[in-house]
Design a protein that fits this description.
Layout lengths: L2 H15 L3 H11 L4 H18 L6 H15 L3 H15 L9 H18 L9 H14 L3 H19 L22 H16 L5
């Protein structure tokens, strides 16, 4: 995928993602402060607007950095800061690259997961967005068929969300609920699932 197609693919995916705003709001009201739907909508709209104005010659790294800046500036939330940091970490893996394929997607997602783990002081199993991103990174690293990778990532993200239902939240406002958080899907992991579903609807990484 060249830079122009990457820009277009991100914008179209985020436009689809905003359709999940109400679902994410409701999930976050049960486990957090209920602002995730607003965060995702405002951040997505800001990214789409900035990417639409980005020069045609922008590189994949510049596209990812634009996404990070726009998403962070649109929201004052912790989630926005974590996502922006993850995007910046991923952008560094694309330095000097003009085309994004399966290996580049795996490197980006792995760097993003590591950033969230470090900045959020969290680990897989703490019931956060990291559970979904880590599952996607592992899937991408082991994938060999670009045509099947998007569907495999969607499946991995969905499994990760389902697994969060049986976990107790250990980070953020959700951790205040302690055992009462068990049985509910994590909102952040669900938001990531909805993003990869949107990405797959637009087309896979190799399209």
């Amino acid at each position: 995928m060249n830079a122009k197609d990457l820009n277009d693919h991100i914008r179209r995916s985020l436009e689809i993602l905003t359709e999940s705003a109400d679902e994410l709001r409701d999930l976050d009201q049960a486990l957090g402060d209920g602002d995730l739907g607003i965060t995702i909508t405002a951040g997505s709209n800001a990214v789409v607007a900035e990417l639409d104005q980005l020069a045609d010659g922008a590189t994949p790294t510049e596209i990812a950095r634009t996404c990070a800046k726009a998403f962070a500036n649109a929201n004052p939330s912790t989630m926005a800061a974590l996502v922006a940091g993850a995007l910046l970490a991923g952008s560094r893996t694309w330095e000097g690259k003009d085309d994004i394929g399966l290996p580049e997607a795996a490197e980006f997602t792995t760097a993003a997961a590591n950033s969230i783990a470090q900045r959020g002081k969290t680990q897989v199993g703490d019931k956060t967005i990291l559970d979904g991103i880590h599952a996607a990174a592992e899937t991408l690293r082991s994938a060999s068929d670009p045509g099947q990778a998007a569907a495999a990532v969607v499946d991995a993200a969905a499994r990760a969300v389902e697994e969060t239902r049986g976990l107790q939240s250990r980070r953020g406002r959700a951790s205040w609920l302690q055992e009462r958080s068990i049985g509910l899907a994590d909102p952040g992991a669900t938001a990531f699932q909805r993003f990869v579903e949107a990405w797959s609807r637009v087309g896979g990484p190799s399209s």
